[in-house]
Specification:
The protein is an alpha+beta fold. Helix content is 35%, strand content 19%. The protein has a 5-stranded antiparallel sheet, with helices on both faces. Strand 3 and strand 4 form a beta hairpin. Helix 1 crosses helix 4. The longest helix is centred in the last third of the chain and has 18 residues. It is globular. 35% of the residues are buried.
Length: 181
Amino acid sequence: MRKVRWAAAAAGAVLLIAGCGSKGDSAQEHGGDAPSASGAAPAKAGSGSSLDVEAVRKEIEAAATAAGFTARQPADNVPPGLKSCTVRWHADGAKAADSRKSYDTTVAALVNGGWKEGGRSDDRQSVTQTLDKSGWRLIVWHRPQGRADGTDEDSFIAVDTGPSCEKPFQEDLANKTTNKK
């Protein structure tokens, strides 16, 4: 039961970090904590798996770029305390010829690479899916015209669900909840 609550808290933290529902994606909208991707040092995953942050980032980027996506900058604005537990990768929807097709191709490539499909929600407004691999949960979504500039939003957010990442996620969630009051 505790693992279920922890996974739910991690998913909530991911949505807060991702700015779910916002039209923009600036550092200001994420509490000002938007370090560059180059600031992240490779760290071992907290789940004890063979995947670390950089391996997950590379898998996502390889699948997405092979499908026709390019990264939107800044690609990674994860709070410093979560850098070893979280990967954010956002596609530049303006540069994809057909972002929905690229999204579907990216998900298929990740599944072929060993990510296990979880829940999926597909409606007229968006597609959201979860994938799991070696203690990591990847939440991927496609929203037509989801950005403030009218381009499609395609995002890939991965979190390490291992025990060493439980405390940093809970602390970040508490900070974000306290700061909203």
